[in-house]
User: Fold this.
Amino acid sequence: MPGAVSSAEQVLPVRNERGFFEIRLESIGGLGANVAAQIFAEAGVLYADLNGSNFASYGSEKKGSPVKGFVRFAPSDVEIRDATPVERPHVLAIFHEALIRSGPGVLGGLYPDSIVIVNTRKGAAEMAEILGRTTGKVGVLRALDIAVEEGSRVNMAMLGALAKACPFLEPEAVEEAIRGSLGVRYPKLLPANLKAFWRGYNEVTFLDLDADGAAEAAEEAPFVRPGPLLGYETAPVGGTITAAGNSINKDLSASRQGFLPEFIREKCTDCAQCDLVCPDMCFVWEEGLDARGRPAMVLKGIDYQYCKGCLKCVEACPFDALKTIAEEDGWAEAHRVPHVWLAPVAAASDGAAGEAGAASLQEGE
Ligand code: SF4
Ligand code: SF4
Assistant:
């Protein structure tokens, strides 16, 4: 009935001009954002008298590639005929801290009073500063640690945090949706998944930056869709990528899911089994001497810029010279052994630096 206020309309805290409450999940393949979006939307539709929809957007469907999950809710008398990506989320959940480095591509479109939830070991105040948020709410939780400790996945802990951020959905409703989804498909894993969900719900902490009404005073920033550098009108003939050696600037650290290999030089025999299985050319070698003093290539270390944390090298090493460790903030940067040609070229942001890099390469540095 036009003008009627449904129960759902009363509980949805805020809606956009089309009548929707919208959520965006920023993640990477393997962390389960798509499944989390499905479960959350189901919980709203089945147990909270809401209309809901969800979908995801990703490139190549593989571990480590960026994934966006979207959820829309509306009162039951408002139809959702919209399958466009959520550009202006009321709640933004970031499943992997390294994604923050993507800037507007991940953080774009927030309202002043949007809630941002981040899987991180940092505190909420520090995270708010990193995000550049001065209004809204920032929530933090150690979702990866919870997932590892409970034998679950990051998505369950993040679902718990989402449920806390969206009180119009009872956490018991989300639990029922998890039972109806994962409980049917993977019944043996249900207890671990539920534990991770409830820990996410209970352990997320929020910092309210709007205590003094800051969000009301703030101006809304328009959503800006980051465009590709090259397009139909600007791509070179034939689509050739002209930035020479562009792949050396690739940063795969966001693909790691909390673990990476530590190299123990004393145990290494330079057998190169690790390098044979590594998909991303992470191992850095230099000329040296073998155990008998003969000239040989010697493994110097790992260039973690390229390491996606697949841990194949750890399995392959016959001498326990590679060990799986949980990644702490800054560890990879501190222990990275850069490929010798990386430093001059990666640092080249202008012509002079580029020429210096080329000169270094010619000198064999
Ligand atoms: S974990 Fe090992 S094999 Fe996998 S990308 Fe990193 S260095 Fe290579
Ligand atoms: S497989 Fe192990 S022992 Fe062999 S080179 Fe790699 S790290 Fe060293």
Notes: Residues 261, 277-280, 282, 302, 307-313 surround iron/sulfur cluster (ligand 1) (CB under 6 Å). The domain at 7-217 is CATH 3.40.920.10 (Pyruvate-ferredoxin Oxidoreductase; domain 3).
